[in-house]
Model the fold of this input.
Amino acid sequence: MSIFRSTIPDVATEEPMVQLLGPDGTRTPHEQLDAVLEEADLATPERLRGYYRDMVMIRAADLEATSLQRQGQLGLWASALGQEAAQIGAGHASREQDYLVPTYREHGVAWARGIEPWRLLEMFRGVSHGGWDPNELRTHPYMIVLGSQAPHAVGYAMGLQRDGVVGTGDAETDTAVLALFGDGASSEGEVSESFTFAASFQAPVVFYTQNNQWAISVPTSVQSRVPLAQRSRGWGIPSVRVDGNDVLAVLGAVRSALDSARAGKGPVFVESLTYRMAAHTTSDDASRYRPAAEEQEWAERDPILRLRRHLEQLGEIDEAFVARCDEEAHDLAMQLHHHIHGMEDPDPVHMFDHPYAEPHPIVDAEREEYLAYVAQFEDEEEGGR
Done:
């Protein structure tokens, strides 16, 4: 029996949640997802230790970024603290040829796809447009406007259909798109429009929502009167809710959804239930709207501690490994600190270099207008000497 549901139950019925690892690290068998994980070798002890290290590393980078913003080195930072499993799991669930379309908080997904954290920090410093080649890393640059990337993701997925790389039966060829956005973005019109096109054309796209409980200061209970996992079913898009603090549940569900989309079976929606432990961004004060008791409740479900407990139960982790991960994470944080502090601001004239692939007369005119504007201040300085 598939984990993905197409029918809409009574709104008073609680949406079931798939969980493989409990907060205490206890493993619960799941026939379908266990088969998916086993087939792809995604749950071996070596892989589990790798996920643990990934989550520790990206949390350290995240905390350092917040510190750098407080030091005036970044203009803003959107923390993913507490969402490490939801992101590392989703990133590693994709195949190399899949195309990922993130929003602005997918730091763990970026890490899993081989994007160095300093590239993200440069963007939040305001000196980079993204910093990586989306064709090489199969990951779109960060998108700031909520939900705006969902139509792009569906359009790309429809292009894959026309390129003949969907439903061929060749695991190295078949490709899908993973569209990532938060619970707040799921309320945007662009997401609903994306559901329409994806369902109509049976596009190979997986919509992945990290429901971190708060759209800035608006709780999920106000955004939707039914569980978010039910939203897509009105379009005929099957969906599932998973425990987003359980890296194995995320891995299995997203991998299964992507496999289905690649096979030509159409779109799938995955709601990943997690929690944003930090503020919405560094310009937000979460203590003004979020109760401390709620934060403590979710802290006890910490995704990193959960996986560590599971590895301890398996006898596949020791203090030396934990210490080594912590040391590597500290080194990464220091590298980011020195890299950002050592950056020079670019010459503003470079903003005119790459709006188009080829020279454009309007851009050329705007460059000359800017240079003339700057020159008048230089003339004033020379005249005052």
Observations:
- The radius of gyration is 22 Å.
- The mean pLDDT is 94.
